[in-house]
């Protein structure tokens, strides 16, 4: 690692080695060479004058890349693809005359981008499935634990810890569906020539369109894909790049929302992300336990979400068959979008694997608000026992005002329950009042909803992708 130049923190701090390798120079330029080999093999098979010796020479040098020479050639030519054609040809002198035969630069550039994006999407899918797995375990474990619900960040009806987390899980399920969609959407550009008409290949094959079609089929199969786009200009449509970054943005949105919730709940001490024994929360305040993993997810998520706009703008500003103003932005936005998304998925797996739930704190917060929420049920129970609804309503209104004043003005505990115990008008035993305000009476079908969602939606996904389960996540920082 150089200490004299800027290092991308997505590589040095956040993303996994697996994702970093997918967008490395070695992976990219060896893929260019594999595409040149596939093209030559297809052209030979269909009758062009290309020898096995030339093809074998190319195969033997796929990973023998002289980056210094490539840089020198690019400075000379001001053209990255031709720089690598000549660099490849230097170690493949016999094959040099037929490298890149009939192709345009986008043959290697766009086809490689599709190959790398597909591989990166499959890695994200693996991590997303594992995140869904660990989060669903959390949802099931805490599906019955009542918790104070909030709307407008004001106390509302109760929910459960597992039901709240299942809302995060449902968002990730939607992201899973979208990732599958874009995996299917990403196809090779194929063998299309300069403006997508395949004119150069028609010339090579004496205007035999069937052989040109067959050449593309051969290359697509050799590169491990099922199909290429039917139509392209010089490039495949940049709407593909937008759709991919939109799917990454969706994951970022979901995890940003979930970790915002975690940060709020950690402030209330209801839930805490993992905190290691030697971890320091603050350089000044030794007692602090900051939700730094959730904050890191939120920070990276904002980058991913904003990155989506780069491809939206690129799609909308391409001219006719192609302009080069898509190139620099793609070099930045696509790899970095994947690296950042890889990072937040890994961090999220770490967070949900070690999440701490402080049930006594959650119970305390329920007890501070539930007595007010339960007053209608108390009235109805007391009426069943012969009470006067209007008198009961007024009694509880007065008692509620008195208790609220104790809480707001003097910081005391909510004592509404004790006041109702001692009321002459509320003709109910302490045991009956306690039974009526049991938190489990106020969570509706939350536990059943969690179970149904897991069994009907999540479990089938986990069974379908069981070979993907089990990832080792190590955070660099």
Task: Record keyword descriptors for this entry.
single chain; 477 residues; mainly alpha; Fumarase C, Chain B, domain 1; Fumarase C, Chain A, domain 2; Ribonucleotide Reductase Protein R1, domain 1; 3 domains; two-stranded antiparallel sheet
CATH superfamily of the largest domain: Fumarase/aspartase (Central domain)
Helix content: 55-70%
CATH class of the largest domain: Mainly Alpha
Termini gap: 16 Å
Order of helices and strands: HHHHHHHEEHHHHEHHEHHHHHH
Q: The CATH topology of the largest domain is what?
A: Fumarase C, Chain A, domain 2
Structural class: mainly alpha
Widest sheet, order of strands: 1-2
How many distinct domains?
3
Give unreliable regions as ranges.
Answer: 282-288
Task: Give the CATH architecture of the largest domain.
Answer: Up-down Bundle
Task: Describe the protein in words.
With 477 residues, this protein is mainly α. The protein has three domains: 19-98, Fumarase C, Chain B, domain 1 (Orthogonal Bundle), CATH 1.10.275.10; 105-357 and 454-467, Fumarase C, Chain A, domain 2; 375-436, Ribonucleotide Reductase Protein R1, domain 1 (Orthogonal Bundle), CATH 1.10.40.30. It is 64% helix and 4% strand. It has 19 helices and four strands. The chain has helices spanning 9-14, 17-22, 25-45, 52-60, 67-77, 80-91, 105-141, 161-185, 199-204, 209-222, 239-267, 292-316, 327-353, 359-373, 375-384, 389-410, 416-421, 430-436, 446-464, and strands spanning 146-151, 154-160, 271-272, 356-357. The longest helix has 37 residues, at 105-141.
